[in-house]
Amino acid sequence: MKFHVEARNVVKRFGPTIALDGARIAITEGETHALVGRNGAGKSTLVSILTGLQGADEGEVLFAGEPAPALADRDAWRQRVACVYQKSTIIPALTVAENLFLNRQSSGGTLINWRALQVRARELLDTYEVDVDPRALAGDLGVEQRQLVEIARALSFGARFIILDEPTARLDGPAIERLFTRMRSLREQGVTMMYISHHLDEVYEVCQSVTVFRDARHIMTRPVADLPHDELVAAMTGEATTAYEARLHTPGDDVVLSGEGLTLAGRYTGVDVSVRSGEVVGLAGSAGSGKVSVAETLAGLRRPDAGTVTVNGTRVRPGDVTAAMRAGLGFVPEDRHHEGFVPLLSVGENATFPIARKLGRYGVVFPRLRRAKAEEMIGALDIKTEGPDQPVGDLSGGNAQKVVFARALVDDPRALVVINPTAGVDVKAKQALLGAVEDAVERGAGAVVVSDELDDLRICDRVLVMFHGRVVKDMPRGWTDHELVAVMEGIED
Amino acid sequence: MRLARFRDLTLVPVILLLLIVGAVLDPTFLTAGNLTNVLQQQSAISLLVLAEAMILIAGKFDLSLESTVGTAPAIAVMLVVPVAAGGFGIGLPGVLVIPLALLIGAAIGAFNGFLIVRFQLSAFIVTLAMLIIVHGFLQGPTEGKTLFQLPDSILYLGSAVWLGLPAAVWIAGVLFAAGIFGLGYLRLGRALYAIGGNADAARAAGIRVDRVLYGVFIMGGMLAALAGILETGRLGAIGNNMGVGWIFMVFAAAVIGGVSMDGGKGTILGALTGVLVIGLVQNILTLIGVSGFWQPVIYGSIILVALMISRIAGGKAQD
User: Fold this and answer.
1) Is A425 within 8 Å of A400 (Cβ atoms)?
2) Does residue A51 fall inside a structural domain?
3) Is A150 part of the contact surface with chain B (CB cutoff 8 Å)?
4) Contact assignment for B201 to A91 by CB distance below 8 Å
5) Looking at the domain assignment, is residue A119 inside a domain?
6) What CATH number corresponds to the domain at position B258?
7) Does the beta-carbon distance from A94 to B194 stay under 8 Å?
8) Quick check: pTM over 0.90?
């Protein structure tokens, strides 16, 4: 059988670590092939080898049965394979048109003809039905539009094989649906795709076959259609695991976190939230629904135009994170890279920031106390680290997120606000993180969980659905995916 | 592009305002003689602004340019003139003095590039050290003395008049035109923006990032040497302090001209308007008799006001 793309027996070492150990993948022409695996399984390394950014130490890469071009021949690589990387490769200060034709702005001759460039960009965007103005600055585009520009650019080199590396990580529900529609139409045009994602339901939705990597090795390749969900998870984790089982909570009577009449112009209007001790309340909605803003307001990160926030019986000054924390609130922010941790500082320091005042006297932090507390948190959350002194920047995504959780939980909060708790982490870390939320709730805390993922919301006793800045429905446990999504999209009220 | 062009011209009203203010304050201001004088005084420093603008757009930094201004021509002169005139006594032919100076400038730029691109050191610290070292290479060999007896060839460009305008003004004008054109319409020029905006993305697009950066630093060194040659011709001597302190004005002109310190943003035309604003302010302050000792307060204030205006206009917080 002839494959459109094939990697055989690939070995890649980085110093002492083996990133790929005899790994292989074979992708049939015209299929959408998923590549899944836990963080560190070697997916990213395979992407860089398949795109010619790095050479393999051993093994070979074939395109349509032909050996891959030399590494230096970037043009030849670009005609065979296109990639939309996890990290945006758009240059914000340049226009869309220039980004599309970066380093090949002039079609002939040496001079750049800006008008002709715009026309070419327009044609390219029209070909792939991307509704973006080529004259706009790329930095002014939203995440989804930027990604579409990247896809159009990737395809413009004439490649019939495209790699999408976690394209849905930063998109909201409807945008993901539009991406999938686009992927299906590309497939109808005969484009072969390799799709990388942490979301297994997406794999079932758009892919025909799936390859699993674990610990730098190839584990299996199977058609998606007759592959049970549990078996796929087992292949990824190396052990039989079941889907996360949400526990039953017994909410108490005292309200530990509440927001009343919260209004912030352009974000949300008249929102009331009230969380009892021992209760998990979900906040759901599409990207523009205001759910993240409401959660950030509860945590004191945003200051509302009107309304009050009460944490554990104390009315907190609006927009004051420190006051909220003193009152007993723990917070996991939306983007851990941005607000979650300081990458150069150690695990111990990051985890104990909120209680630094309790770990010493007169502004001095005692290293011994901090170390002890940090080790306790590392144990409690099962953080895989060399010890409390390792910088958080060196940890994998899942473990870094656990450090963020440690920071939120270190003061044993009465109220917990977590936003997208499981973004960009693998199956096992996801279960550990959801478990940590439920553990805290069983100790008597009340939690607010904001998430784009329905799986995260399953631990909630009730879910408040927001639409255009208002809470439109309070759904008790027992909803189906379809019901919840319908309300989020405003299809049903 | 359209938006960028518009942003280039934000300083034009300021320039017009300065022309009006100058004309009102002093009748000699709006004479051809005075304005030519402004242009000539700014021609040398403007080349540094051109160089710094390119380096900043590519996302790097070069403080050492100001030291190259004095050192490159001085060393070139000393290789040519006899010992009695302060030379090394090597006695190379006088016509070589300009090529030699440019070569020294290029070598300094290449060394900066080597440390920053190859060794991946911080551009700020590297060029700060180089600012000190390169200036030392002016003070050391001359032992702090001023070089007076210069070959005619190095004096020509800075003192000649072509078609009624000083040659230095023509040279700066042509180089700025080349810069505006090159950064706007050549792939290589656009590569600077790509590298300054997102170096990884530039590499993924097939741009030879390291090579381009080397080129930018070398070009910067050569422009600084040329600025030194023009300044030498204008003053007729190479003083021990030539170029010292210029770099603050250079950054001021580039930044108020809209070139971002974070890289990837700004244009050469914008940088040029920045130079003109600084030059006009300097001229007006001198004409109305503000003491040179007080002028720094005004320049510093201009930078702050320019930053505040761009913060309000742009709306984004600056790092």
Assistant:
1) no
2) yes
3) no
4) yes
5) no
6) 1.10.3470
7) yes
8) no
